[in-house]
Amino acid sequence: MGLPERAMTNRAGAILIAAALVCSSQAVFVSPSQAQSSDNGISNFLGNIFQGPKSGPAPQAAPGPDGGPPPWSGEDGASGHPLMTASAIREAAANFQNCVAAMWPDAARRNITQANFERFTAGLAPDLRIMDLMDSQPEFTKAIWDYLDILVNDNRLAKGREILAKYKPQFDAVEKAYGVDRYAIASIWGIESNYSTQMGDRNVVQSTATLACVGRRQAYFKDEFLTALEILNRGDLRPEQMRGSWAGAFGPTQFMPTAFKRYAVDADGDGRRDVVDNAADLIASTANNLKKDGWQTGRTWGYEVVLPEGFNFMLADKAKAMTIAQWQSQGMKRADGKPFPDSTEKAYLLAPAGTQGPGFLMLQNFRVIMKYNPAEAYALAIGHFADRLRGGPAFVQPWPRQERVLSRAERLELQQLLAQRGFYKGTPDGQFGGQTREALRSFQASIGAPADGFASSDVLERLRGR
Question: Do 381 and 350 touch, CB atoms closer than 8 A?
Fold first, then answer.
C-alpha cells in the first residue's frame, strides 16, 4: 500500500519507510512508489529509510519568504527523467490550467458534476516544491534497529493503549466483522501518523493535480486526482479534510485516493466514509484493506528465531518459503523458547542484520502488511509494535549496534566493486535491493565468509582488497 510503484500504485502510504536502511543495515526495501508519502512526520521520515532516493524527502531548503514551505529549487530532478528537467517542469506548470481543464470529460465520466468540478478546481495552482520532494536523493545514515527504536517507543505505545481503550467498541465491532487484529490496526495508525498528529498538511487536490500535470508520473496521478474529486463530489469528505502528504496520502492511516475508493467503508451508517475524523470509519476501512489483501484471522505475522551455527544464509530469501517444520529441520528455534503453534504454516526467513542479529520467520500476515507498505522494515515495525501493544516483550536478541552504516558514496563504491568482480549485474546507484544482496552473498561465499548479504564496513574493506 505504502514506494516504484506501490505508493504510486496503491497508497503513498505514510511511510516512506523504505529506502535508506540500506543493505548496510540490511536495509529492507520499499518500492519506489510507496514512498510517495507525507513529507511531514515519522512516517515519511521512515519511508525514506528503505526506498531509495527517488521518493524520499528532499534535502533541507530555506523556508519561503513568508516563513512557509520552501519554494521549488528550480533545478533538474535527480532522476534524469526528461519530464523532470527544469525546463520541462516550467513548461508543464505554464500549461497547468489547461491541463486541469482538459480532465473535465474524464471527471464527467465518473459522474462528477460540472459545478463540483469547477468548485474544487477553482484557483488551483501547481505546487512545484513537490518536484524536489519527488526526485530528491537524501543521504541515508540510519540502521534498521535505529528506526525500530524510533517507531516502537514508550510514548507511542502509551498513546496506542489509550486509543485502544478509547475506541474499544469500534475495535470490538471491527474484529467481529473483519477478523483483523485490533493491535495491527492500532499499530498502523500509530506508525503512519503518530495517532493523527502527523498526517501532512498539503491540499490533496492540489498535490495530485500538480503531479497529474507536471513531472514523471502523470498517468498514475491523474487517476489519483480524479478519484480525489470523486470523493469530494460524493460528499464522503470535506475539502478541508483532504490534507495530507505531497503525494496525496491523507488521514490517520494514510489512504491514497484510489485506496480510499477501494477500501473505505461507512461503518456507522451516517452516509459518509470519513477516514479522517470518524474513528469507526477509519478503523473499519483500515481493517477492510487488510482483510481484502489476505489477512488471516487469529494468526500472527511471524516469529523471532535463533539461527543455528553454520546456517546457510542463501535460504534467507522471500522466494524460498518453507513450512515451519522444514525450518525446524534446519535447526531453527523461536528466540523466546516457546514452541511453534502450527508446524504446517509456510514462512520465509528475514535476516536484516545477517549473522550478527536476530532472524525472523515471516508468515502470510507479514506479507499482507507489506501490501500496505512494501518495505520489510516497515512491516517488521508494524508487527512488533502490535505485539508490544498486546503486552508482548521486546525482541530477545540484540542488534549489531556497533556496526557503522555505509554512506551513500560507500554503497555506490561497494556496488561498483561487486560489478568489477562480476558479481553485480545491475547499474550501481547506491541503492541496495535484492540484486545487491545476492551479489554480496556470492562474493562472501567466494571468500569463505558467511554469505548473509549484510553490507558491513568490513565487507567493503574486503572488496577493496585491504
Answer: no
Residue found under cell 467498541: 169
Q: What is the mean pLDDT of the chain?
A: 87
β 333-334/202-203 pair status = unpaired
DSSP strand E in 84-135: where?
none
Q: What share of the chain is helix, strand, coil (3-state, %, to 5)?
A: 45, 5, 50
Closest Cα to residue 372, out of 9, 51, 4, 40? 9
- Closest by alpha carbon to 36, among 201, 197, 150, 207? 207
Q: How far apart are CA 166 and CA 461, in angstroms?
A: 53
CB-based burial, 90-108: b 16+ in 10 Å, e otherwise? eebbeebeebbeebeeebe
CA distances from 331 to 306, 325, 334 (A): 9, 10, 10
pLDDT digits (tens, 9 = 90+) for 87-106: 999 999 999 999 999 999 99
The answer to whether 313 and 334 are in contact (CB under 8 A) is: no
List Cβ neighbours of 11 (8 Å cut-off, separation of 6 or more).
1, 2, 34, 249, 254, 255, 256, 258, 259, 372, 373
Under DSSP, is residue 203 helix (H, G, I), strand (E, B) or coil?
A: strand
Q: List pLDDT tens digits, range 229-238.
A: 999 999 999 9
pTM of the model: 0.86
